[in-house]
Design a protein that fits this description.
With about 180 residues, this protein is an all-alpha fold. The protein has helices at about 1-15, 20-35, 45-60, 65-80, 85-95, 100-115, 115-130, 135-150, 150-165, 170-179.
Amino acid sequence: LGNAEAAVQDAARARATAPSAVDRFWAAFKQHALGDMKLPTDPARLDCYRNAVPEYTIVISQRPKNFRALTGWSAAQFRLGEFKAALVGTTAAAEINRLDPWPHNAVGVFDMEIGRLDDALRAFDLALQLDPGYGEAYVNRAFLQRKLTGPEAALSDLAEALRRNSDFERALLERAELL
């Protein structure tokens, strides 16, 4: 009985000193943010994302429906070039928060990266159904339309993104590239 009590006390102490899911999320988020702040050519940038992934993974294992952890994990995976993993995590996030256009748009981006162009188009269309003013989805759909059918369809989506937000820099850059 003494050994059982000691084991229970040891387990309680371990739980009390182990980082909580919230602490782990912020540790992952910090590494992720550090990676985002580094120059793209800085090799330490990828190390930051590599350090964030296991922390996000632990949070997700403890709280599988944590939208922010799933999207953070997916974004880190994307930056590491792990597009299929990013797609899995973002698809799970989209299932959790079905009315948020952001994960659907991200699913489209990841689908596009792995060559699932029809799925990408459906994801962008869904993001725009959820929020017709979501300019980023117009720009991403324009990029895809350019690949699928040429610049004319792309220009229509870029014009819509610009109509909704004249300061939409990415749309301006994409439009200039298409002209």
